[in-house]
Amino acid sequence: MRTPLVIGNWKMHGTVAEARALAGALRDGLKRPRGVEVAVCPPFTALPAVAETLAGTPIAVGGQNCHWEDTGAHTGEIAAPMLADLGCRLVLLGHSERRREMGETDEQIARKVAAALRHNLTPVLCVGETAEERRQGLTFTTVEGQLRAGLVGLEPAAVTRCVLAYEPVWAIGTGVNATPGQAAEVHGYLRGLLSEVTSKEVAQRLRILYGGSVKADNADALMAEAEIDGALVGGASLTGPGFIAIVRKAARGAASRGE
After folding, report:
1. Which end of the chain offers a freer environment for a tag, N or C, measured as fewer CB atoms within 10 Å?
2. Superfamily assignment of 61-227+252-256 in CATH?
3. Catalytic: 67?
4. In the prediction, which pLDDT does 258 show?
């Protein structure tokens, strides 16, 4: 039984005051979420304020990235133990914007996954194909390569501590989301790969989220798919009512499937 997880990725948005206000709205609107887990990933500058605002609530706080080293001369970077020290419970890794804009490689992302696990953070490994890769029929090839590389060297017990997020690059910030069928097809493929890489038991336990222009008006259809275990939400997580609506729809989707 996989409890759905909905994560708000605030990306590079919000002052400390704005982040505190948004966190307060979520705290007040999601006092006792049932049948769903919730997390938010604010900018690094707002992490302490958001963690303080959400302290004692069911809403977890996460980082948007971390370095693979625990300390060192890495100007501008943040380490996994620093996130843990701020109360973070998870961290996004391998997001397409990091791969594309910052040139992150599969090898670097795998090292980040290992670093997160060392410090008891849940790595949320992001995979997804570009529009050109989909046109060329390379969707499965692309996500397979990213999954295998991101989890390389991990024992099955370590893999169970991870979360996957399928985010087709062509759907991120474009307003065009994958159809429920397209998303479910890739999620099913990823789960089959996990069975090969680890075991069927691990594959059935690990949550695979969908991300890519998730909004309140398409969340119902996406969350109704049995292979979709929640959402990684970008722009729609920047308003309290919109994000809360997605969280509630994820919970209803799981309940309707008997999870």
Report:
1. N
2. Aldolase class I (3.20.20.70)
3. no
4. 65
